[in-house]
Amino acid sequence: MNQATDLIAGAPTVFMWVASFFAIFFALIVFVSSNPISCAVALMGTLFSTAALYFSLGNFFVGAIQILVYAGAIAVLFVFIVMLLDLKPQKLKNLPGRLPHFLFSGLVAGLLALFLFRTIDLVPKATEDSSASILSATQYAQYFLSQYQVPFQAAGLLVFGAILGAIVLARGHLGKKEHS
Amino acid sequence: MSAELWSAIVAIALGAAVLTGVPLMVIVERRGSAWMQRRSGPNRVGPWGLMQPMADAVKFVFKEENVPAKAHKVLFLLAPALAVIPPLISFTVVPLAGSINLEGIEFPVQVANMSVGLLFLLAINSMHVFSVLTAGWASNNKFSLMGALRASSQMISYEIAIGICIVALVITYGTLDLREIVKLQEAGSSLPAWGIFMQPLSFFILWVCAFAETNRLPFDLPEGESELVAGYHTEYSGMKFALFFMGEYAAMFVASAFLTTLFLGGYNVPFLSEETIRNFFLAKEMTLTMASAATCALQVVSFAVKVLFFMWFYVWIRWTLPRFRYDQLMHLGWKVLLPLGVLNIFITMIVSYLRSV
To answer: At which of A111, A131, A151 does a domain end?
Structure first.
């Protein structure tokens, strides 16, 4: 009985490592795969694994929102659009031609890693009562409707503008096609 | 006993119950449809054809598995699994009964007592569309792809109406915790304080959306036999097809449990609060553990009866109404249910403001 209890009590930590592994694994597939659909599916896998990571850390609200918004809506739309466009697997150029790409992405990755290592000490260390610092849905709502009201509304306007822009672009494209 | 071990026990029992419920529901559907159309239905295997699900399961396992030559192998194999997993996961946050008192500690009969259970349920359900989309595309078949495209646009459209209704519900209940929502519906002596009386409009919108989300008739356009052969699972055979089947029924169970929890008082027995029932059993000289277990058993039965009502309603509607046309479906989703949902939010806001003043 005690063994079973210990096994289950250790599960969240194991779960966290598994989720992290899959997040990185799918991210690599997004990067490596030449098939756009595989990329989109793997992107969804990454987003979902990240949500699983939040769950294993005890922050259920952020995890649920991550699935609802990113994995459930945005990634599905990605897959949907890629399927509609019927993209064929891209033929990758040979290595010398891709050298600038490798150099640039390596530079960005290096800078990010440097940034991470320099700032890792600033992040508060996890303690026994770190679950107490996790905000509830009500607290999030209170922050968004009081302290961060203006940025919150501005973000909404930004998204609205983006939607209008997308419609204008799509309509314009259609209009040209009709004339020609 | 630790809380984690208890969760694991409930999870295994729940998984077994749902997976056994699926074949049972299949026989109910087949016999039910036969009854409605004055046919006999499957009645040869065992008494009243009750062993038919067993025969079906054996047949599914032994059938040949086909993978089309030009299919995307990985996604083709992944899609059936993705159809079953989300409904099973989303069942974890549904409260099945009150709590059992073991060694002086109250253990809620629920796998995961999550503070944002409602959001979690919604989030996991939104993953369901993914299996249909993947299956349709990976099969490399025109009919499959058409079915998948129809399914995804249908499910995404109706998810918006669901989200709008959830907003009104959250304003009414003031919480995202499903266990707390069920407890709020416990109060009331004459008329139960059930969600159906507090949010009738959202109940009907969500009920319609539950049909659309599970791709059941009259919203089964993704499968539409007369137009698309079998829609997104045309190319699937054997156990892979059975997994889609199981996924559909498991999703129906989830939708029924969802409606029960939010609108029909969840596990509450009408007119009897958990305390009343427990005190009744305690008065019969039971120990606290026994009394709480008996209370929970009664509540699980109450929950199951409500869920089975919705399940039967699925079957009832399926064999009563014809399929919608695609434009009618989109019209209903965007021009009827969505505006009604928004109107409902306004009414709810005004009422809750007047009540708080």
So the answer is: A131
**Residue B343: pLDDT over 90:** yes
- Structure confidence at residue B344 as a pLDDT band (50, 70, 90): very high
A71 and A139: one domain? Answer: no
pLDDT of residue A176: 55
Residue in B126, B130, B134 nearest the CB of A68 = B126
Q: Looking at the complex, does the CB of residue B8 fall below 8 Å from at least one CB of chain A?
A: yes
Q: Are residues A60 and A44 part of one domain?
A: yes
Q: What is the pLDDT of residue A133?
A: 65
Are residue A142 and residue A61 in the same domain, yes or no?
no
- Residue B201 near chain A (CB below 8 Å): no
Same domain, A110 and A176: no
pLDDT at A180 over 70: no
A104/A160 same-domain check: no
Q: What is the pLDDT of residue B100?
A: 80
CB–CB contact B130 A137 (8 Å): no
Check whether residue A101 and residue A152 sit in a common domain: no
Structural domain total, chain A = 2
Per-chain mean pLDDT for chain A:
79
CB contact under 8 A, A8 and B5: yes
Three-state SS sequence of chain B? CCHHHHHHHHHHHHHHHHHHHHHHHHHHHHHHHHHHCCCCCCCCCCHHHCCHHHHHHHHHHHCCCCCCCCCCHHHHHHHHHHHHHHHHHHHHHCCCEEEEEECCEEEEECCCCCCCHHHHHHHHHCCHHHHHHHHHHHCCCHHHHHHHHHHHHHHHHHHHHHHHHHHHHHHHHCCCCHHHHHHHCCCCCCCCCCHHHHCHHHHHHHHHHHHHHCCCCCCCCCCCHHHHCCHHHCCCCHHHHHHHHHHHHHHHHHHHHHHHHHHCCCCCECCECHHHHHHHHHHCCCCHHHHHHHHHHHHHHHHHHHHHHHHHHHHHHHCCCCCCCHHHHHHHHHHHHHHHHHHHHHHHHHHHHHHHC
Considering the domain architecture, whether residues A125 and A169 belong to the same structural domain is answered as no
For B114, the closest of A1, A60, A65 (CB atoms) is A60
Q: Are residues A36 and A92 in the same domain?
A: yes
CATH label of the domain that carries residue A53: 1.20.120.1200
pLDDT bin (cut points 50, 70, 90) of residue A87 is: low
- The parent domain of residue A39 ranges over 2-131
The residue extents of the domains of chain B are: 65-356
Lowest mean pLDDT among A122-131, B105-114, B115-124, B180-189: A122-131
A contact residues 8-27, partner B, Cβ 8 Å cutoff: 8-9, 11
If one compares A178 and B190, the residue with the highest pLDDT of the two is B190
ipTM, interface predicted TM-score of the complex:
0.77
pLDDT of residue B213: 84
